[in-house]
Amino acid sequence: GIQVEQSPPDLILQEGANSTLRCNFSDSVNNLQWFHQNPWGQLINLFYIPSGTKQNGRLSATTVATERYSLLYISSSQTTDSGVYFCAVPWDNNNDMRFGAGTRLTVKP
Amino acid sequence: EAGVAQSPRYKIIEKRQSVAFWCNPISGHATLYWYQQILGQGPKLLIQFQNNGVVDDSQLPKDRFSAERLKGVDSTLKIQPAKLEDSAVYLCASSLWSSGNTIYFGEGSWLTVV
Asked: In this complex, is the C-beta atom of A45 within 8 Å of any C-beta atom belonging to chain B?
């Protein structure tokens, strides 16, 4: 099955700073999703992005499928951006989505 | 549009007891997932249903865990008997279909086994 690696594992930012989170995967994918888990445990889908670039407010994501990585950009970070960011890809053709270990982001005021 | 509903939100049981979690996916979603998330780790897929059929249960500890999705809507995840290492959040999620659709998560059911 496919392997997913996220980096960095931990990131501490000052409010207003920008950041880039990375997700590497070991095989070609037709489905990649980014999630944010808030401090209360709720997982929110940020992007469905198997390829290309998408933007939603201060967040944007780019997936380069041929090079097997995806990037999540957070601009002008806010304290509410704190939490854990996960990427997920299909394990096999059944699209059973498997998650990386996550990047824990802390944004300080 | 109502989200994925889960219950109970919190449960504390003693080891060797049993527990059941319930999930109601978003209306019209054919695919339903159960994930286990241990503190500090990413969610681990336990079982995936497409309507009322099982697509993947390769990571489900079948000696103690069982899940069903009768009529292709609601689902129940059961643990019997529970072990200390089953302490985790059990997350239910759903999507329209399994291929290329956004996944939506419920708030989770927090289980503590003492």
From this structure: yes
